[in-house]
Amino acid sequence: MRIEQEVKLDFKDVLIRPKRSTLTSRAEVDLVREFKFKHSDQTWSGVPIIASNMDHTGTLAMAKVLGQHQLLTATHKFMLEADWLSFLRENPEALNYCFVSSGTGEKDFNNLQNIIENVGVQMICLDVANGYSQHFVNFVRKVRAAFPQHVIMAGNVVTGEMVEELIISGADIVKIGIGPGSVCTTRSKTGVGYPQLSAIIECADAAHGLKGLVCADGGCTVPGDIAKAFAAGADFVMLGGMFGGHDESTGEVIEKNGKQYKRFYGMSSTEAMNKYHGKIADYRASEGKSVYVPYRGPVTDTVLDVLGGLRSSCTYVGAQTLKELSKRTTFIRVSQQINEIFNTTLITDSIGDR
Ligand code: 5GP
């Protein structure tokens, strides 16, 4: 056993220090980035925020609306080919903003192949809870060999050496995050994890050294966290909970005590496993929870709130483009983030208040 003494940080441990700037308006900030990928021949440009490939958020309705704002959606891996085809017939322009997701089983691979061949999706999200297994590395190699021109995002991991391994094995983007998610219980179930801000900083450094990219996945609860993730070096940021509870998220609106909610659950929760596998296998424990999130109407309002916050972050440090944000950021360690005096005494309904 060994103890690493260096403190690792989370979003809540830091703030971004403001800097002198010549920008006069948030409207001058450009959030669009263009990426060339290490393995794939493609380039992509857009706002590098991705709706998580969870049942609730990785929907085609989400892809349609986020695509209109140049944001991405990783669809959940249970999406049927027929649904893809009818969606794209009506929304062909949305294709550029979608990842198709896959696990590592034989069935997953066959499904992935069908969707790529018949639907034409160009970006692949290979997602497992634990990206450290040799089985996963082999699967990334297999998918890269089968689809040399496609963009491959693979994860999740939280340390530089595994980021390097996945990039060398064929990933263009490595997904970072073990345990930070809003409906994740991995840390309490297993004691395993890594504070997300430090994970992003360390993994981005490792990836960029190899011309790879990283996607920070999980733990963002407010627009400021997204800004911190980009400032820490993330090329993409994936959101689950923040895109939860909208019209475009799966599930009916439920009324409880006069308030409206939608059901949201982790993809390793008992609820998800019962839904897709009939039950939880005896040898494993659930690592996700189920919650009711407040119903929040159309996701466009949340997107505008997030993008407005991000433009403002860039303005505070004088970054004219999102790309410049990390170069212009100095994080300061803090012991308090926000004034919470009215959080418990006053409930506001305004959009964006969380
Ligand atoms: P959020 O943005 O809600 O904080 O985090 C979303 C991320 O949590 C997802 O993209 C995924 O990586 C992770 N996640 C989703 N479901 C589960 C789960 O059941 N268990 C764990 N450990 N992580 C999950």
Give a description of the structure.
The protein has 354 residues and is α/β, with parallel strands linked by helices. It is 32% helix and 18% strand. It has 11 helices and 15 strands. The protein has helices at residues 60-68, 81-90, 106-119, 134-146, 160-168, 186-190, 196-209, 223-231, 270-277, 299-317, 322-325, and strands at residues 14-16, 33-36, 43-46, 49-51, 72-74, 98-102, 123-127, 151-157, 173-176, 213-217, 236-239, 254-256, 259-265, 290-294, 331-333. The strands form 4 sheets. The chain has an 8-stranded parallel β-barrel, surrounded by 6 helices. Strands 12-13-14 form a 3-stranded antiparallel sheet. β8 (151-157), α5 and β9 form a beta-alpha-beta unit. The chain binds guanosine-5'-monophosphate (5GP). The site of guanosine-5'-monophosphate has 25 residues, from β11.
